[in-house]
Design brief:
The chain has 414 residues and is of the alpha/beta class. It folds into three domains: 64 residues, Roll (Archaeosine Trna-guanine Transglycosylase, Chain: A, domain 4); 120 residues, Transcription Regulator spoIIAA (2-Layer Sandwich), CATH 3.30.750; 209 residues, 3-Layer(aba) Sandwich (Rossmann fold), CATH 3.40.50. The protein has ten helices and 20 strands. About 3% of the residues have low confidence.
Length: 414
Amino acid sequence: MKNLYLLKNKEESLRRFHPWVFSGAVGRIEGKPQEGERVRVLTAQGEFIAIGHWQIGSIAVRVLTFEDEPIDHSFWVRRLRSALDVRHTIGLAGNPKNDTYRLVHGEGDSLPGLVIDMYGQTAVMQAHSVGMHVDRMDIAKALKEVMGDALQNIYYKSETTLPFKAELGQENGFLLGSTPENIAMENGLRFHIDWLKGQKTGFFVDQRDNRSLVEQYSKGRRVLNMFCYTGGFSVYALRGGAELVHSVDSSQKAVDLVNDNVELNFPGDKRHQAFAEDAFKFLDSINEELRVKNEELSSAQTLPLKGTEGAYDLVILDPPAFAKHRDAVRHAIKGYTKLNARAMEKMPSGSILFTFSCSQAISKEQFRMAVFTAATLAHRHVRILHQLHQPADHPVNIYHPEGEYLKGLVLYVE
């Protein structure tokens, strides 16, 4: 294992157990490590600090351990067992009504660059660093030992998450077992999980708790689920007693999947309809319908519609990340403002808005300011009912606050 020496006085963040070594802190390296190779991190004076995966980029090392210990089979077993213990503690692992959860959440579980989601007896493993890709088979063996008979299949899905410059020629596929079964359960509801070609590991596991909250607010409401993807929010809203649920996504494949998931849980239910359309165009079409209705009522010498009466009174905005890096923050804030303003303009008084940002580069304060600006532009009075975040199976390492990426607000709109 090669030694990496930091520049003088660049070890402070590592003394506080931050799991990244930035390239600007690197003084010299003994030899030429291959990307993904493990290196020992030392101070400029040669004092041991950590062991981690070397990589090319602004983050030079992702730290695996702050102990001078071997990274062997027992190491992976210990880390994975610790992650599983957390999921038992929070009531997810071993729950007969819920076999869908995140088992490993990168830095949050002291395994930076690694994500493992459980769907029934199948684990979907995703590497976000070359180092975790290199170690994937060792991790798979340790995972099987830790999970035992509860795990029958491991699907490796990292084609789109590894740096393309590494030229790894990575292909997705099973590392253990193989199964055509792709149905998993979340809080008693069943979902088709597209781990072969779907986004992330096939399902947005991080919105589980927030989907349950939507269910609580859905009774008797007209629900609009924008950027619906697999339709998780839509299915929960139907179980919550929504009057109607409309799901919108620009992808026809996503629309087909949400229809399949609705049929899986509520066969023949006529309350749901899905649309393959751009979000802003769909919201604009609602405005146009209301304008036409107002003109028709005015010509008939009757009272016009008040505001957006008759439109959706529970709206969910869960767009993809508008900012994947800090250079895009200003543009992303404008996008969140525009989207939320368009939605608020169409909501009758007494409506509920669930709005989210999954952009790690956007802070909670920036997102809240974007939403408040949207309320001002839409001339609406809003109250915060809930401030939302990622669930407990997506833990945040206290030494790595960057891991807190999901933020959301539930607003009462007047």
